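ARCHIVE CARD
SHELF: 3
SLOT: left
DATA:
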Amino acid sequence: MNMSVPKLFLLLFGALVLLFLASLSAGKIWIPWSAWFAAVNDPQWIIVFDLRLPRTILALAVGAALGMSGAALQGYTRNALADPGIMGVSSMAAFGAVMTMYLGTASAMPWVLPTGAMAGALIGIAVLLSLSGAISSVLTFILAGVILNTVASAGVALALNLAPTPWAVNEIINWLMGSVADRSRNEVAFALPFIAIGCTLIATTGRALDALTLGDAAARSLGIRMERTRLALALGIGLATGASVAVTGMIGFVGLITPHLLRPLIGARPGALLVPSAFAGAVLVLAADIIVRLIPSPAELKLGVAMAALGGPFFLLMLIDMRRRAA
């Protein structure tokens, strides 16, 4: 059943507003809305604006970045199972951040960790483009991403194995599990510009992604410059995903799930899925973050772990459905 795009945007925007308000109130300590208008030195005001507001903004921004990146990758590769992690950018960003923790510079200078993650993402982009070449096929592009992902994952494992102290291992593992908890305005100020630039670059590829549904040759005949499209996608996904990983750690499956939830509603045209996937990704991550706060447990469940618990079965069901259709 197809839904009009304006109606879908209205529903998603309404959900975002409700979740935004709920996120500022929900937690181990519930904050009534009246506390938002309390005195500046009120402890509840501090909880809302210094702790939960940056967390909420990051959840929205990271969800939008990962959702749009997943929709773009699935459109470019014509592969329903594509995800930002397939390019290896997430793993390279994680490797860059892990190296700062392994060397001990992240604790001494807080800005080093996000800078290392962004550097890892940009290096990943450069390697990806050099491996895939200027006129390579989509298959080569995917294989280059798989190689990059494998190398980066091996580097993270090596850093864990050679970590000088158990505390370093614990710090790396906790960061890799992914979370938006205890983030400050500094992380928000760092991530938002890169995510905004990355999503803007991705949005410019909508026409090219639509043309690619006809095949590479047909897209070129329609005037689509594949090398420019590939560069815009690599830079856009690299900046958006790299900035997300830099401030939250690894949060997976968002880019895989959101396009599949939207296709039955608005169709499968890749260009039309980009912006709605950003909204849906923001809704998904913010809703998941609210849920992990409300789960009764001594320690708060990591958002990355919760998304893996949701995305794993979803991925399995997709594989089963694709196999059934192929048969």
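SLOT: right
DATA:
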Amino acid sequence: MDVTVAHTPDADDAFMFYGMLSGRIPSRGFRVSHSVAGIDDLNRAAGGGAAPDVTAASVYACASMPGYTVLRSGGSFGIGYGPVLVAREEMGAEEAVSSTVAVPGTTTSAFLLLRMMAGEFECEVMPFAEIPGAVRDGRAAAGLIIHEAQLSYGAEGCVKVADLGEWWHGKTGGLPVPLGVNAMRTDLGEDAIRRFDAHLHDSIRFGMDNREEALEYAMRYARGRPRDLIDRFVGMYVNGVTLDMGSRGAEAVDAMFEMAAGMGVMERFRPRVAPPLGGAG
């Protein structure tokens, strides 16, 4: 079965898909071709029905992707940490969002989390890698940091205002922070979804079991960052909940939408999620 896959140009996604795209694991009957695009672009494409058969997506964007089923494997979940709100100098979150905040996209889970924590705010969308510099240089009063910049913002002249993962952890009693998922076109059928979910699970497991090999591949998407930083970043977002979201991950996804609806940030929504992993052959 031919399947088109899109993931982000980020090291954690590359690490997850290495086993699959390199042919280092059995194919489970799939012939995979892949492309890469930024997460906000992938979110918008999936919402418009123009995305590949399998796409990375922000959890928040699932509300605009009625034709997709969330896979159990391949999710990006923070464990007590997540996107970071930064500024050039120490200040409270209320002060930080009183001026324009640079954000990596209004379809991202990071944006939704900040709305949930801080309410309405003015924002300017820019590529996530440019946000620390914009804050440091005074072109933005505050910035919402995602990806490996969560580890490097201090060296780029920014200070932490709030870790949205810590906020979420406190609000939910310790649920993992649901940030990104992989989703597959529902019309491809339950059997294909089950088998591809298992295939992605195999790929992630291969990366975890062959870390140095998979990390070497992931360095293609390092954007000039040092290997030790990318190693730490991959360790943060390729974890046990990535391998299989399980009941806690699924609960976290539902909790995000329930909380957001209860706060009046969005309409109530519950995404379609693939059956639990196992038995895919």
